[in-house]
Amino acid sequence: MADGPTINTIAERAGVSIASVSRVLNGLPTRQDTVRKVMAAADELGYVRNAVARSLKSRRTHQVAFAMADVGNPAYLAMLREIQPVLKAAGYRLVLHSTDAVVADEIDVLHSLGERYVDGLIMSPLRVTEAHLEMLAAARAPVVIIGSVPEGTRVDNVRADSRTGVKLAIDHLHELGRRRIGMINGPLDTVPGAARGAAYREALGDLGLPYDEDLVQIGDFYRAEGARAVGELLARVPDVDALMCANDLIALGALDVLRAAGRRVPDDVAVVGMDDTDLAAASWPSLTSVSLGSAERGKAAAELLLDRLQGGDREPRVVTVPPRLVIRASTRQEEGSPA
What we know:
- This protein is an alpha/beta fold.
- The protein has three domains: 7-58, lambda repressor-like DNA-binding domains (434 Repressor (Amino-terminal Domain)); 63-160 and 294-322, 3-Layer(aba) Sandwich (Rossmann fold); 162-292 and 325-331, Response regulator (Rossmann fold, 3-Layer(aba) Sandwich).
- The protein has 13 helices and twelve strands.
- A six-stranded parallel beta sheet has the order 2-1-3-4-5-11, sandwiched between helices. A six-stranded mixed beta sheet has the order 7-6-8-9-10-12, with helices on both faces.
- β1, α5 and β2 form a beta-alpha-beta unit.
- The radius of gyration is 24 Å and the shape is elongated.
């Protein structure tokens, strides 16, 4: 093939029409199975697309952005691992933004949709402000939000069920006989911080346990901040016998402090995290954690966005991923370990 592959040869290899190949290569709405066949044939034949010319012609960039608070947080990495293949199979490149949960940066990302540098956006903001809602309403490209938004917000939305997840954890700790259950939370002005704080209080009430402000410490969703918060709580309430942590990074900080203080886990203090990231299984002791379905949420968000990009004209959808409790050594005695 001295002159290189052409639309005709790609069509022949893929077993589809020339018109279908043209639609795929120009970024026009096409059935997913056709997109996969054409992209596979193009790769096999060594076809190199002129991205600039194609973008000018179709007014599409074939790029999608994913904006998250912290690219180092393994929960977001789990989302990314599912988002990437879904979009890649449809011919889209992924552009990443790590906003550090700075509202102004997230608003800039939403505003830049008008510049058409990407065809769509997946965003997972820790805070949802009036400015976010105004920009979402005026967005010039499809947007999917991972995380809760106010009811009535007209945007595709994939959310976790933190309320049920926290209840699963508190019920588990209660069944183990723990009654002085502390909560290490992130900032209460964030969506997860507010939801998990309220769920903790509700779960205690359901079990007939009193809510004690001394057992609650607010920090941030990072390991070092978790360690600082746990140190302060232990100094104030030394008889705490369990810790409900708002994410796995906070829980890892808790394990660091408890180990340094000579407090045995789970014998003296049982610890539960949230997100069930890869770090939970690799920690010492391994960490009991509530899976909020980070991977499932990422995949669902990518599929919702892809449907919009392919011309899906429908009412906004809300997808809620159910939680599950993954029990490990931080709340149970491992077989063969000393009592």
